[in-house]
Amino acid sequence: MRTAYQYRLRLTRQQQATIDCWLELCRRQYNYRLAERFSWYEQNRCDVNACSLVCHLSELKDRPDFYWQKRDLVNSKKLFPEYKDLPSHTLQDVIARVEKAFDRWLRGDSNGKRSGKPRFKGQGRFRSIAFPDPLKLEHINGRFIQLPKIGKLKMILHRPLPDGFKIKTAAIVKKADGYYITLSLQDATVPVLAPDTPELDNTIGIDMGLKSFLFTDAGEEIEIPQHYRKAEKRLKRLQRSQSRKKKGSNRRKKAIKRVSKAHMLVSNQRKDFHYKSAKKLLSQGKHVAHEKLNIKGIARTRLAKSTHDAGWGQFLQILSIKAERAGLLAIAVNPNGTSQNCSGCGAKVPKELKDRTHACPKCGLTLDRDYNAAINIKYLAVGHSVNKAQVTSDAIAGVTLVARSVCLSIRVGSMSLLGDGRSSWRSRWRIPIADRKCWWRRSTHKRADAASCLYWWLQQPRGFVSRDSLSSFCGSSAYIH
Ligand SMILES: [Zn+2]
Questions:
Q1: Domain extent for 461
Q2: Cα 286 to ligand 1 centre (Å)
Q3: Which residue, among 360, 334, 357, has the nearest Cα to 347 in the 3D structure?
Q4: Does 140 lie in the same domain as 33?
Q5: What span, in angstroms and rounded, lies between the C-alpha atoms of 188 and 346?
Q6: Chain-centre distance of CA 3, in angstroms?
Q7: Is 54 domain-assigned?
């Protein structure tokens, strides 16, 4: 298992100055190496249709890749001897970051998702330095941690390091309120828990929204604390006071610090809320199904501020990490139709964002809109292709849950049973059931079954279908939701 612990550092003036100096050197190195790559890229490419047949070619240079740039660090150290004061692996990590930023831009990550063009880092924008070498346990002595080339640093050990874990890497991060050290820990002996398959009784569905942060399929609701909205007034005052200060002055620097601390407070509050909500969900010991959110898309709309204040992305990240530790799953499902479809019968009930309740005209189900969506999300995660009609006997005050019918969904491929020539044909019937305690089966998508099922159903007299005739027909290959 790999995990990270972060501790606050209590540095001396001298150590602070050293770290600041290293950060600045790393920033310059980063910018220089980035520029090196950009210029090679610019000089060594030309469009096929814009290049003249005979043209002067300058001598081709080696492409600056990771290893080339790493070797070239020797020259940096020759030209600027202050680079010799840095641990060499810290400097090499800067090159690795350039490589990663560049690759993400040109090639994309493992999912093929490309990032934007890397940017040069302005002053103070390079905030962390890495120590990529494993630390031995004797390097930590009480509250002191020994790092290469800087010596012993005092840290606030607010919680002990877990037993049996090895320190793989360390990184010093400069934040608005001081310096922190992040230790990446690993213990190979901790087994990875294998999650069991999600089923109806071991999964909870959550619908995330702007009205409430999340709504579970058990009807629980967690409010959005709106930390940013609450802090906005104070932030506004601080920002105004900052902009009144003369540029480059000490008072401005102090004002900038105040603003960044206020922002940090908000983000810490939000993170805390996310951890607590994730813990609350996972303490039930069930898999959590959520919608696959298009956060970037929503954040471009008028709802941007509220979206960022809710911070779903961070929450889902925390949720998936914490779920993995607990041997559970965080399942993302396709959000199409989760709020429109009825969780009782699967019928589509169109509604706008302002309609807060779901009232199904077909089966009479009346629920909160988010509650309905949460149930749908759960069904999708469990693997129901169409939302399954459900029997819920428990009475919730003011809420009626009635399952009056079974949805029969049939897809016939090239077999055109009705003879109208359509090659693919899909339909759904709702069969009223006499016995309310009917059972349902997972769908098996077999065309032959669908066709025979349809044929059988067409033979039946209209009206009620008894439970017995349904089960005797469907047997092992039910096509009933
Ligand atoms: Zn319905």
A1: 404-481
A2: 27
A3: 360
A4: yes
A5: 46
A6: 18
A7: no
Q: How far is the CA of 472 from the centre of ligand 1 (A)?
A: 26
Q: Looking at 386, 401, 416, which one is the last position of a domain?
A: 401
CA of 265 relative to ligand 1 center, distance in Å:
45
- The full length of the chain comes to 481
Residue 193 DSSP label:
P
Segment 282-322, tens digit of pLDDT = 998 899 999 988 877 788 888 888 888 888 989 999 999 99
Ligand 1 centroid–CA 428 distance in Å is 13
Cα torsion at 382, 383, 389, 394 (round to 10°)?
0
CA of 330 to the centre of ligand 1 (A): 27
Based on the fold, state whether residues 215 and 346 are members of the same structural domain. Answer: yes
Q: Are residues 408 and 434 located together in one domain of the fold?
A: yes
pLDDT tens per residue, range 376-393: 888 888 876 544 433 333
Same domain as 120, residue 84: yes
Residue finishing a domain among 385, 401, 417: 401
Alpha carbon of 360 to ligand 1 centroid (Å): 5
Give the model's pLDDT for residue 425: 37
Tokens of 298: 């929503």
Confidence band, pLDDT 50/70/90 cuts, at residue 44 = confident
Cα(349) to centroid(ligand 1), Å: 8
Centroid of ligand 1 to alpha carbon of 408 (angstroms): 14
Interval between CA 130 and ligand 1 midpoint (Å): 56
pLDDT at 472 over 60: no
Q: How far is the CA of 363 from the centre of ligand 1 (A)?
A: 4
CA of 457 to the centre of ligand 1 (A): 21
CA 290 to centroid of ligand 1, rounded, Å: 22
Output the pLDDT for position 158: 92
Q: Are residues 282 and 351 located together in one domain of the fold? A: yes
Q: How far is ligand 1, taken at its centre, from the CA of residue 109, in Å?
A: 42
Give residues with Cβ within 8 angstroms of 102, minimum separation 6: 34, 37, 118
Number of domain units in the chain: 3
pLDDT, tens only, 245-283? 999 999 999 999 999 999 999 999 999 999 999 999 999
Query: If you measure from the C-alpha of residue 343 to the centroid of ligand 1, how many angstroms do you get, rounded to a whole number?
Result: 7
438: in domain: yes
Give the span between the Cα atoms of 116 and 320, in whole angstroms.
25
- Residue with structure tokens 């999650």? 195
* CATH number of the domain where residue 291 is located: 3.30.420
| pLDDT classification of 419: cutoffs 50, 70, 90 | very low
Centroid of ligand 1 to alpha carbon of 433 (angstroms): 14
Identify which of 124, 37, 133 has the alpha carbon closest to the alpha carbon of residue 92.
Answer: 133
Contact 479, 443 (CB under 8 A): yes
